[in-house]
Every structure is written in structure tokens, then in C-alpha cells.
Fold this sequence. Notes:
- The complex is a heterotrimer of chains A (323), B (471) and C (83).
- Chain A is α/β, with parallel strands linked by helices and 323 residues long.
- Chain A has one domain (3-322): Rossmann fold, CATH 3.40.50.1110.
- Chain A contains 14 helices and 5 strands.
- Chain A has helices at residues 3-30, 36-39, 55-60, 63-70, 84-97, 132-141, 143-146, 154-157, 160-175, 198-205, 216-231, 245-248, 254-268, 295-319, and strands spanning 49-52, 74-76, 103-107, 235-240, 271-274.
- With 471 residues, chain B is mostly helical.
- Chain B has helices at 6-21, 24-42, 44-62, 68-93, 115-130, 140-148, 150-153, 161-168, 175-208, 215-246, 264-270, 273-291, 296-314, 318-336, 338-345, 350-373, 377-387, 396-399, 410-428, 430-437, 444-457.
- Chain A binds chain B through residues 3, 6-7, 9-10, 13-14, 17-18, 21, 81, 111, 116-119, 121, 144-145, 153-154, 157-162, 164-166, 191-192, 198, 291, and chain B through 175, 179, 198, 408-411, 414-415, 418, 441-442, 444, 447-448, 451-452, 454-461, 464-466, 469-471.
Amino acid sequence: MNTVKKITLSVAIILLVLAGLSRLYDFALRHNANLKAAYVQRAKIDAEILFHGPCEPLWMISPAMLDSQTHVRSYNLALSHSDFADNYLHLYFYLKHNKAPKLMFLYVTPESMDANYNTFNTYRFAAFTGDPVVDSVLKECDPGYAKWTAFPFMKYAWYSSKINFDALQGLKHYLQHRTVPYYADGYEPPLQVVWDNHLEEFIQLYPHGYNFEWNKLREKYLCKTIALARQYGIEVVLYESPVLKEALLYQPNRREIVKRIKGIADAYGVEYVQFDKMKIAESRKYFMSTLNLNMEGARIFTDSLGKYISGRLYYNEFIRPHL
Amino acid sequence: MIFNSLIFLCFVVVTVIINYLLPERFRSFFLLFCSLAFIGYYNIESLLAVLVFSLFTFYISRNIRGNRLLYIAGILLNAYAVIMFNYFFATRQGFDFSYAAISFNVNSFIIALGLSFYALQNISYLTEVYFGRWQPELSFKNFVLYNSFFPKVVSGPVMLPREFMPQIDRNVITHERLAAGFNRFLLGLFKKMVLADRLAPAVHSIFDFGDANCGLTTLAGAYLFTIQLYFDFSGYTDMALGIAKMLGYDLKENFNLPLRASSVSEFWRRWHISLISWFTAYVYYPLVYRLRSYKKAAAVAGILATFLISGIWHGIGITFFLWACCHIAYLCFELLTKRMRSGLSEKPSYLFYKLAGIFIVFNAVSFSNIFFRSGSLSSALLMIKSLFSDFFPAGWLHDFIAPLAVGGHQVDEFNFYISIFMAAAFLLFERRINRIANSGGFSFYYTTACVLLIFLLGIFSNGERFIYMQF
Amino acid sequence: MREHMDTSERLQQVFRKVFQKDDLLVSASTTAKDIRMWDSLTHLELIAAVEEEFNIKFSFSEVMQFNAVGDMLVALSRKSGEI
């Protein structure tokens, strides 16, 4: 075989294998029950209440615990490290396949408005490119990635260290006919439950405090998420779980940013609830980092949240209709 | 332009094709243009620096024969430039110099791309001309090309005038050379994307988080850094040599299976060869020649001078000084125990001796690399402290992996094991792989396998975008 | 006794002394690769011993060009011719 033939054959085989792998990954990832993006598009969840946001709601709010108090079924849609664009797409996936919930709690803090905290996790959406909504968000949030998606397999290769495992797991789930995720109600207990020293590192880095930077893209997707929910008639509540008091000393413009968030909430006519009066905010023994409560803290917070929700549902059902 | 970025790939393809099609006499002009464009694309200061240094060295070299003052001035200016460059680097980055500066993570070069490499070349050029061993170059174009040739400008290999200059006006590009260059380039890409960058998160977690890990974990981190550094730097070199070959140039080999060295002096004959042979020729031998009547003491003085200067060349700071001290100690020890070891090696248990030697050298080099990689003295000391404490804590067999698999999720462990497996498999079959990568024909299995593995397991997104996200 | 030994034999004695191996055999074609202990760390120690034995001095560029024992023999015969 001469060289030209060999090169042609090699290129052809590479392209063929990549196209094949692309199909296989598409299939496998869509069957992975542990990926929320895939799971909410396959299973009927139809919860009455959704919790949404980054790791704080994910690790704090256990629907199993809450539902026994409120007697209403809820689902935790949150994902770690996620920003509002990430949240927006997950809500979009959820609503595509499920009945719209009555209430959605979206976690919003000054941190969520700052691009240094959390991120858009492109790889979670790799299997769902081709959908115009997904494509437009990808283009805006990760343009370096978006321009590659046309090339065979490149949408998976780009973040291969994040995706290979999920694809294999998806294949396993398909072969074992598994449809229920490891964490069925979406709540994930945190891996680490002791104080993680991030605050100390933060202070070392910014001894004179850190001013949050307002990010326009975050603002845009916060608005889009609220708008999408309301389009489906969902009542949106923006909330902030207790924040460790001593950390506030190092965040000079926190109040100002909170004010801007309230401005957005007012513009959409939704509520911004801060659980900042809770006693647990004053002691480190309930926290594992500035924003994350530990198991004990989360239990106390969930209890308060449950009371808030019950009150709200009671108001909606029995009081508001008569006003 | 990072070597494994798309834009660089396009740049290489276009350059190779045009260069191939051009008549021979235009090629050096074209390559000079491409090289300057490459440097200018990085930043304009670097372009100015390479032109100014070339101009200066070029002109003084013409009058340097027998003019000792001019010679010393030329050397001092080039040496001063390296020191200032490293000093600025140290102050701007807070000693966060790390291996990246000698690898091809060009983001870490702030002031002038490749300056520490071409300054060495200039010093050797001036020396050769001063002592009449090399005729001063008549063409300024050729001299600038010698300094700025883009495959080697970022991180070497350091080429002596006699190794590079004669190639400029006689380069013949055959199909065989194109194929060999391509194979070599692909090998480098594979080493960088599939091996080095995959190991980076584990190394990052051990060296940069400042946590006190148990001894075994720290040891694994130090080992992995040595392996990562090897793949990163030799991967870069493979790409540089491959590109140069496709353009009609043979650059010097920089690595020769260094992790299989069974003594530290052998290690230095196999690791960063072009640099160490530069130091041997221009620092070590001249000094030891003068002191040779002191016998072993002369060699000790030579080792001392060579590695202290090499330490400064790598970066200004106490960590690089200590790194150099480690190697000075190793080499002096080897020098003084040579006879005893030579007796050992000829016993029937030669294989055992050899394997033990490889193991000891790998440990010694990894230990010195703790200083090389650590951002500060305190973090290096913290690592060494944890290296010698609590080596096998309870449940170590499972727990010692966790800090290496950053993130602690199943997916992180999965990635970690794949990285280890790939690196180990590569090291085991390295000689065979290198043979294919250096062959001058298109190899169907090699190419297809490399490309597919890069797609399946390579790190594309400029390293890991997510490992810094700790919130 | 010494006078009867030819240059290469004397050179061999020097090699044996420097590398401390009594059964070492060297010929004109022996290179640094053949003697495990002969590397850049010991090269100049060897040169110094040769210089002492033959009572001559090598120049720096000569020293740099010694790749094999043969090179050394050529230089030695040239030097002894000069004397």
C-alpha cells in the first residue's frame, strides 16, 4: 500500500471512529441517570417545589426531610459550581419534560453575581448540543468550545476528563436498565463536612476585604431564569441561606450588591428572602465554609425553610384567594 | 501561541507547506519572517528584545577577535539580561516561577520570550568567535534566524553556532524528513496532551494547596511532578524537533530516556542535554581545566560552579539555590564514591544494581524537584516535613489517593488512574515508541492510535479550567 | 624500566591508576563509552595524570578534542616529537 493510500485510510478511519464515538457518547450520556440534565429529560419528576442554584442548595436542602414537614413533593435541581446560565439550561430541560412546579427557590447571593465564584459547566451540556436554546447559551458562555462542536467528537474531546467517566457510567446504566439516580431527590450530602479553611485563605489573600464585582452575564441569566419560570406560571422565590457573620467583615460592598439583587427581584415582582436573622449565622460550629452550612446547620436551616414554605403554601391556598 | 493550541497548529501547517514549496534560497527569509511574526504575536517587547540582542551580538562579534574587553562586555551583557529577566520574573510572579518557565507554558514568560535561551547561544557564539573556533557570521539575517528560529525560541534546545549555522543555507526537505518530522511532532503532542496535562491536576493539588498531606501522598506528588515535568518538557522538545525537521533543520536532542538513568551524573547526560552540554563546555571544562592539578577538588569546584550558575539561570530565589545544592551534593557524592560503586556494579547482581540505581536516582531527582516546583521556601519545607511524617497512616491504601485525585469524586479517581496507567504504559514502552516516532515513514497504526488517543484522553481546554474553581 | 615501555603501555598504566582498576585494557580505539568511569567528572583528572606522567601540558582545545585514547596518543607523539 502506498503512502497516499495509507494516509487516506488513516484519516478515514479516524473520522469514522470519531463519528461513531460521538454517537455512542450521545447515547450513553443521555442514559446516565446520575446526570441531572439527562435524568430530568427522561424521568417524570413532576415536583411541586424546585430548589435551584449551585452547591449551597445542593448540599443543604434535602427534599426527603423537607417533604415530611410540608407534605408537598419537592425536587432539588441544584448542581455544584453552577452559575445562572447553567441553572437556566437545567430549568429549561426540566420544564421540557415535566409539569411546571408551583414554587421555585433559586439561590442568589452577592457571590452568585461575581464571575470569580462558580462557573458555567459546559461539559454538562455536551450531549444536548443541536438544541437551539443550548447552542445559543454555549456560544455566549464558552465561545472557545462552541466553535468546535461541529467537528466530529470534538464536543466530547474538549472536556474529555469530565465526560469519559459519565459516558461509561451512562453505558452501565443502560445495560443494567437503571433509571433511578444515586441521589433520587436531587439532594447530595457534601463530601466534606468539617471546616475547610477557605475563609482563612480568603483573608490571607484579601486582608483588607474583597469587593464583589457585578457580572453582566450573570445578571442576564438570572433574569432569563426568572423569566423562564414565570412563563410557565411558576412562583419564584430568590433566597439566601445564612451566611457566616464573621465573613461579612471582609466583604465591604456586600450590602450594595444585595440592594442590586433586590432591585432585580422588585423589577420582576418576586421576593428575595434572606435568612440572615437566624442564630446559626453567628457561630462557626454550624458551617463548613462561609456559605455552606454543615450537616447540623443544614438541618436547622431546612427546618426554618420548611416553616416558611408551609406558611407560604397556606397563604397561597387559603388566604390569597380571598383577598 | 501555545504549542498545542489550534492557532499554532494552523501556523505550523501553513509554514511547513509554504516553506516546502519555496525555492531553497528563499526559505531562510521566509522562516525568519515566520519566526519574527511568531515572537511578535506573543508580544512586541519580545520581538524588540530578540532584534536588539541579535544586533548587539552580531556587531561586536565582528571586532571581537583578540579584543578581550569587548568579549567580556558581550558576555556580561547577555548574562546580565538573563539575570534581570529572571529577577523581574521572580518579583512579578512572587517566585511562582515553577517548571513552566522551562516548559512551553508561554504565559509565564512576561518580559521576553526565550531570552534565557538565546542569551546562552549568544554567549557561546561570542566565545567561539573570540577564540577563533568559528568565523563571525556575515549575514545578519542568518544570525537573527539562529536566535529566533521559532521551533526552538521558546525553550530551546540550545544550539551551538556550529550545530545550527551550517544548516541555514543547505536544507533539503525530502518526503522522508516530512514524515519523520510529523511522527515526532505527533509524539510531542501526545506527551503533552495525554500524559503531562493529565498529571497536572494531581501535582497542582499536592504542591499548591499548602495542605499537610501524609508522607506517602507527598512522595507520590513529588514523583508525579518529576514525571509530569519530563513529559511536558520532552513533549515540547519533540514538537520543536518535529517542526524543525519538517522545515529542513535538525535540532539537538534534549532528552534520552532520563528516567532510566542509574546515576545522577548519567541523569544529567540524559536530561535537558543541550543545556547541560552548554554548561559543560562553557563553565565546567574551562574551570576544571585550569584547576586540574588539584584532581578531585577541581571536579568538585566545577560541579559547584556549574550548578550554582544553572540554578540562577533557572530562576533567582532560594528554592532554585537549594535545588542546585541537591544536585551538587549528589554529584560530589558520586564523584567520591565512584570506585566503590564501580566495584559493586560488576558483581553478578548487575541487573539488581542497575534497577536499584534507577530507583535511587529517581528518588533523588524527585526530592530536588520539590524545591524546583515549590513557590516558596516555606511550602518546600512543609512538603519535606510531611514527606517524613506519618508515612503510612491508618487506611492509607485508600486515603493516600484522595488528595491526588483532586475533587474527591469518583470521576476524579477514574481520571487519576487513567493518567497513571497511561504514563506508566508509556514509560514502559518508551524506547519502542520513540523508535517509531523517529522513523521516516508514515506509520498507519502509530498515527491512527495517537490521534484517537489524543481525542479520547487529551486535555484540550488549555489545561483544566475547573481545578481552580474551589467555591 | 620505564624507558622500555612504549607510549601506549604507559598510557594504560595511567588509566589503571586513575580508574583504580588493575585489569583495565586500553587501545587506540577505546572511547569514554567503553570505560564506565570515564566521564566529564573524571576526564580532567585523567588528563592531569597523563600530563604528569609524560611531563607535558595539553592546551584547552586539545583536551576538548580527546574523544578516544587514539586522539591522546596522536597528541602525545606530536608533543614528544616537538621536544
